[in-house]
Amino acid sequence: MTTSITPTTAGLPPAPPVEAARRGFTEIIAPYAYIAPFFLLFAVFGLIPLLFTFYVALFDWNPIGEHVFVGLDNFDRLLGDVRFWNAARNTVSIWLLSTVPQLLVALLLAHLLNHVRLRLAVFFRMTMLVPYVTSVAATAIVFVQMFDRDYGLLNWLLGLVGFEHIDFTQSVTGSHVLIAVMVTWRWFGYTTLLYLASLQAVPRAIYEAAAVDGAGNVRQFLHISLPALRPVIVFTIVTSTIGGLQIFTEALLVNRGAANTCGPIRQCQTLTLFLFEQGFIQFKFGYAAAIGVALFVMVVGFAGLNYFLSTRIRPVKG
Amino acid sequence: MKFRKVSAVVFAATAALSMAACSGSSSGTSSGGSDGSSFEFWSFTGIDAKGSAAEYKAKRPDIQIKLTEVGNAQETAQALTTALAGGKVPDLVLIQGDDLPKFVQQPQNFVDLRTMGADKIKGDYLDWVISQPTAKDGSIIGIPTDVGGMAIAYRADLFKKAGLPTDREEVSKLWPTWDAFIETGKKYTAATGKAFVDNAGGSVYSQVVNQGQEKYYDPAGNLVYERSPQVKAAFDLALKAVAAGITAKQSTFTEGWSAAMKKGEFAVIAAPVWMLGSIRDNAPDTKGEWNIATIPGGSGNWGGSFLAIPKGAKNPKAAWDYIAATQSPQGQLDHFSKARSLPATPSVYKDPKLTSAKDEFFSGAPIGTIYTDSLLGLKPFLIGPDSTTIGTEFTNAITNVEQGKGDPAKAWDAAVTNIKNAIGS
Description:
The complex is a heterodimer. By secondary structure, chain A is mostly helical.
């Protein structure tokens, strides 16, 4: 604060102190009022449930009976629970199988869709969104039928060319691949459009100049598109990590015979599905809340690690 | 500065409180209204609750029934749990037998139906059925709506092709025991090259284990699944069926199961009375080709449901009137002729309406007598809070072997380990 009197205010009579105070108060409170809705909604739907989950995790919590305080027992049990580690392994496996191809496919598609001479570009760009707007449940039902052991389209084709039928839903690898395919199919269009939007911001002149200099499509992709996309790639990696660690519906619908465990030996039970099973099938809310907390820690950890790695590793500029 | 912080906190707190107050009031007495002439009823799908409600409305036009078919039985139990925890409950709810123990353990959530008159009518029901909704403190929290007698449904046309008898009496004689059942399966598979039964977990294990006098708990409520001879015998029989190669490896109620049923990829399904509707809906083109034989090993029960009134119900009287009218022996008999749910009231088991009931879809099988016969002389087992979980783990272990992934020699130990993990004892 400066105490010197400027020429413009010097000639004015001083404002009445009460009004100044009132105006000052309104001006101070106004910005907070404008942003208050977000914080209120965040508190009600984000923070309070989160804190409540931490709280419930400390109890043996029967939703229709007693709530017994057990301290950290739930976490202790969780760390020794093979089902938890199995679910964690499945989740990471499915996440890697779905995210890596998805982002790579999206990168290539975005580059192609951004091509100057592409005909019907708008049409192709619109079709990218079709998988995304299809309901997850519908997607899962169709894919599970396509991958069915005895009557699925895919195994029928495999049979035609002389291969044995693959039992996708019953084996560990098969079920992970099946879920990953569903997730990839659903999200690649969305990611493509994100990349495309970012690519559109790159001036055409740069591509044209590169072409004049003799750079082919591959070199243009590596040296123009990829560096331009770096911030949005970081963003999609972080969001798909969060989404990937929370895969639920696809896993729930893959194995209808043993839906809550995603198969007889929990071969594709993800962490969220394990949480659902403990909370809403077994009604062990305390234990389920502990799983939720563990999942929260994992998501934050993975997202942070991703962010750290993807901001450090820069593509070579050429 | 300080004031701003404080005011923001106060503002947020007030907003939160007012929201809490809003959600709180819905569980109070203000909304809805206990007018005595309407009640809210949660049922599950597939048991024709609409039909029962319509029948009742015809008798009592002054009563409004707000019926919600929440989902399948398990989903309805989940919704009820959430409702009980949250405070906004229906007046009347249907609970499946397998889901009942969790609620019976917490009887304070329900109206003790003895206060409504359950004491006077409890003798109408099979003893072992009415004992299920009876809590430790003696309160009765539910009234049985039906029971699940057991039998075997088979495809007579496929049996004929395989050179087996097709008449239901003769077919029943093929399998006095489960071992004989498996032997018949071997003959069928050898003759046709096709699977005999849909799966080992549902059609063998779950049937055998439901025929015993002691399942996963002893009568005192102690867990005995690990040393129960009945459970081990059921498990071994299921693995024997798997080893014999007579199962179609299709888990019950999956897409593949439906498809295989339509195509006649297996000839036999163990069919508790509630399974008949599934077969009918699933494979309507096979009408008249099915028939029903008795189950190996004699009598047994699997399933059944109960009507309960949550403690917070606004119209418990209207709900009880509904229970009393529809679940009387006569009411259950009437519902049987329409919906094929088997009465839990033995006094009507000799009624011509029941004994003469035939099902055209199943070649005119006398389903009334077949299923009630399977209940006679039954000495049932205790169903405990973790019975469903234990059953699921055993079935999963069998399925895993059936799918060719698991080692049969290790399956039992794997199942027991999983159960200990799941229920913590």
